[in-house]
Design brief:
The protein folds into 2 domains: 2-79, no CATH class; 90-256, MetI-like (MetI-like fold, Orthogonal Bundle). Helix content is 71%, strand content 0%. The protein has 15 helices and no strands.
Length: 321
């Protein structure tokens, strides 16, 4: 009896599934358009990914074959001696620590400053809010140039100083705009309710808004970290002390001096019979590509971790309403 009673109850569910299949059934034109779109996006993705793939397979292929440009789709005579030799280059490890330090410290301060200033500029009761906001944003459009910037940095004693990597990037107008827009898109009732309960400005910022702003702060963190990690011009202009060279600046020098560097590495390995083969003998191409992978790899590994925050943050933080 119960089985027969259950049958009518299942009919609406079955009918709903049939209606759903009918509703989402694609026509021949829709299928053709979908195939074209997926094909175009697949080709675009391949175009974006292939340069990295090409560099990787060239770094693990025989150096003599790679130097001739014969490595196109698959690695040939795989070996990892290039990475072993490059890590032996003097100063590379220390430069990596400098880049890591400036990335971690600089990104943390930039995210903190952007979060606080973006929140404060969204508060209508802030003293001279419009003036300070416009005063900050205007720096995005007007720049004095490299020479006045260098003279300012020198007058602040930031030449040959690790703080030269950190202080100029703390206040970033673009990131502040993103956070401000994100905060303004959140319900004002949250802040009003906290204020009625006796919470002050700092309490609202740290306990209410900061947890809500995680997506946009993750977006800012990615942008700031990439900028810090990839920067080398500040080292070029402000630093002459080799103990403060960043990894990107080392890469810049190695690319310009790849020929002499490959000769130096080969001389260091001259005592080993294994190193005497053409397949592992360092070339200009092998040095450039191997150092490039070492520099780019950390960003490629970190980005997927923050990707979901990045997409949500940039969509919400960039569009109001």
């Amino acid at each position: 009896m119960s089985e027969h009673a259950a049958e009518p109850a299942l009919e609406p569910v079955r009918q709903s599934r049939v209606d759903q299949k009918t509703r989402y059934k694609l026509s021949a034109t829709d299928k053709f358009i979908s195939v074209v779109i997926y094909t175009l996006f697949s080709l675009f993705a391949l175009i974006c990914v292939y340069p990295f793939y090409s560099i990787i397979i060239n770094t693990i292929s025989a150096n003599d074959i790679s130097a001739r440009g014969d490595v196109v789709f698959f690695p040939k005579h795989i070996h990892f001696q290039n990475y072993i030799d490059v890590f032996k280059i003097p100063g590379l490890g220390h430069a990596a620590l400098i880049s890591l330090g400036r990335t971690v410290i600089g990104t943390s301060l930039t995210v903190g400053a952007s979060a606080f200033l973006g929140f404060m500029f969204s508060q209508e009761d802030m003293w001279a809010r419009k003036f300070w906001y416009r005063f900050t944003v205007i720096t995005m459009f007007f720049s004095a140039g490299i020479i006045p910037w260098y003279l300012t940095m020198r007058s602040l004693h930031l030449t040959n100083n690790f703080l030269a990597y950190i202080l100029p990037t703390v206040v970033a107008p673009f990131f502040i705009i993103l956070v401000k827009t994100f905060v303004e898109s959140t319900p004002k009732e949250l802040q009003q309710a906290a204020s009625i309960d006796g919470a002050g400005t700092m309490t609202i910022f740290f306990r209410i808004m900061l947890p809500i702003c995680k997506p946009i702060l993750a977006t800012v963190a990615i942008f700031a970290a990439v900028d810090q990690w990839n920067s080398f011009q500040d080292t070029l202009l402000l630093v002459t002390d080799s103990n403060l060279y960043s990894l990107q600046f080392i890469l810049y020098n190695y690319i310009n001096q790849a020929s002499s560097l490959s000769t130096m590495v080969n001389l260091q390995n001259a005592g080993s019979t294994a190193m005497s083969s053409l397949s592992t003998k360092q070339t200009t191409t092998s040095i450039r590509m191997t150092v490039t992978i070492i520099v780019v790899a950390p960003i490629l590994l970190i980005y997927p971790i923050f990707q979901r925050f990045f997409v949500k943050g940039i969509m919400i933080g960039a569009v109001k309403g």
